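Quick entry, no commentary yet.
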Amino acid sequence: MDTLNYEVLAKSGYNGYILKNAPEKVLQFGEGNFLRAFVDYWFDLANEKADWNGKCVLVQPIAPGLAKMINEQEGLYTLYLRGSENGRKIDDKRVISSVSRCLNPYEEEGFKQMMDVAASDDLEIIVSNTTEAGIVYDPACKLEDVPASSFPGKLTQVLYHRYKAGKKGIIMLACELIDNNGKELLKCVNQYIDQWGLDDGFRKYVNEDCTFCGSLVDRIVPGRIRDPKEVAELEQKHGYADPLLDVGEVFGVWVIEGDTKLNDVLPFRKAGLESRVFVTPDMSPYKKRKVRILNGAHTG
């Protein structure tokens, strides 16, 4: 059975939405099951429903990762959203084509490619989900590291390179499951600006030209299917093998904290997704609601 790529997908007879070529507008730190079933899914819908015409470049946040596998599949993977909605059982398949490639910055060429994306005119958004331990200031990181070991260190390298290239500021969407994720990330970047002795112009660029947003993510993502029998059945049904196949629940909400003007900048409102992905000046009511629902579900 051939492994999924654009040529194999065409031969399989898949007739869903696919976008093969588009500018790389998103740099995404994290390539695991959650981001691919959540963030990349919403951008995929934005391409289909709003003609956003953008791709996401993924970056391995740690040395072991999925870059090789993702690149072999040309960024394509199958996503199943499963569960129930309005009393109806859902088992929807979608091939996600919002990912262009994945970079391994722990290899010299991957680090260079990450910096090339950083200095691109097409780049608009940086997204991260580097686990709860990802947003941490590590004073051992240096500007000249290839790459800095911490995620905030890498982000500071990326933003400094972009600043020196004279490119516009970006929108930073932090998805890590910690309180005030966007503010904590910005705090770490400012610590590296101090430690590395970077100029005041760059500090102004980071704090004024770039927009750091915290966010609340809500979707259960079981990830890959572990039953070999079901995997074999799906391969026969699809007409291709897909080691990157991902599974998430139907329900999904992405609450982004920031100036509501960003609703007009990000592609989600235009795509008709405003009930699922939206910007609000204060996400604390949504966080409170999520915690209460989760706590209620686990109390018995």
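second:
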Amino acid sequence: MKDTPGKISVRVENGKVVEIKLGTDEFICPENVKREIEEYFLGKRKDFTFPVEIKGTPFQKRVWAEVRKIPYGQTRTYKEIAAKLNTSPRAVGQALAKNPLPIYIPCHRVVSKSGLGGFSAGLEWKKFLIDLERGKQ
């Protein structure tokens, strides 16, 4: 597995992944989920098949669903996502800040028009994930 900027933690409820945390090993990761995440970091996986339960407001879920459409290795701006959803870039950023499933909901693929923008796990993680997907790791 590529050297990540930190540990990864996955929380499961009723057999479904409900939270992924970057930078911590707070939860125990089930083997099937661990395998898929390891394959992702090795560049062998672009999508995940483990079951998830996405918890959020209806607006957050709309934003997250749109972000899930961004192809592996590509980015979109907060403004582009906002335009598709008829909302503001700030509202998109606020929804992404609450993303309970980073990597699965690839909010790292959303950048500002002048740089990386923010990321709940820190910019080191965001840059790492973008570079990984672009084959720069």
